[in-house]
Amino acid sequence: MTLDSTRTVREIVQQYPAAVPVFEALGIDYCCGGTKSLEDACEKQQVPLSKALKDLGDALIVRPGKDDEHWTTSTLSELTAYIVEQHHARAKRELPRLVALAAKVHLRHGHMHPELHQLCELVDALRSEMSPHMLKEEQVLFPRLSAMEQAARNGTALEPAFFGALINPIRHMMSDHDDTGELLRSIRRLTHDYKLPDDACMSYQSLYQGLSDFEKDTHLHIHLENNILFPRALEFEKAH
Ligand SMILES: [Fe+2]
Ligand SMILES: [Fe+2]
Q: What pLDDT shows up at residue 64?
């Protein structure tokens, strides 16, 4: 298959979800930085375009993605329920665990690895950033989307929301996502792409593995919101 490298990274993952692990492996930002063309994203990440196209071609031949396709035709409520049950639940479970684990590793290894102090601060900042953000989605934005669908189904009018048009909270959420993306990038930089030192103990290994897995999950989480849920919600609002 051939891919047009002037298409945006977002368009590519929307059409081919199997491209997600390829972008993850190449370090190409497909969630917050998804508006860049594939060419520009490769240049920014200093990945040869030919390599990205080959890796994408291989992945897409083997596994044409279906997951996101489902979310482009489901109800908005089904999608938000999935986000809450999968990604929010995982973040609520993982963030306190990673904060505690980072503190433990810092306590044991901080004298040899002073950067662990900053790592603790970054993981803590990640929790402080994501926890209230998810609460706002669960208590304000997502219920509004369900109410909009319900009203459209029943043919009833909906009271205007206190925040006005949907674009207002959505802009706010997307700006939070940018902040989260920046924190994840800082963690990756500080840990040199999660490269463990030679003296790393089991907790150290578990911390880096946990952070790396959490980064992947958060990229998918933000992708579902920025690239699928929010555009669909804005379209829905316009159409009703
Ligand atoms: Fe979310
Ligand atoms: Fe979000």
A: 44
